Amino acid sequence: MEIIKKPILTEKASLLTEKLNRYSFKVDHRANKIQIKQAVEEMFGVTVLAVNTAVVAGKAKSRYTKAGFVSGRSPKYKKAIITVKDGETIDFYSTL
Hints:
By secondary structure, the protein is α+β, with helices and mostly antiparallel strands. The chain has one domain (4-87): Alpha-Beta Plaits. The chain is built from 2 helices and 6 strands. The protein has helices at 11-20, 33-44, and strands at residues 4-7, 22-27, 48-56, 60-65, 68-73, 77-84. Strands 1-2-6-3 form a 4-stranded antiparallel β-sheet. The chain is elongated.
């Protein structure tokens, strides 16, 4: 099971990184906080102080096409916000 899927690179997530030394990731929905902490420490070589998780509901989407009205949902996902020890950073672009 691949626990960390990808980092969340949004304006809100970058503000958390700058002010509070926190990083956001999309993670496997079956992973718990202990597994997420171990995966981040192993992958990036940092000390994790706290892990907060949230299940983000998918947005309802709809559009009009030639065939008529089409509606659906974007998929839900689990988000993990990782607090890292002061002085340590995670470089997302070194692991590409």
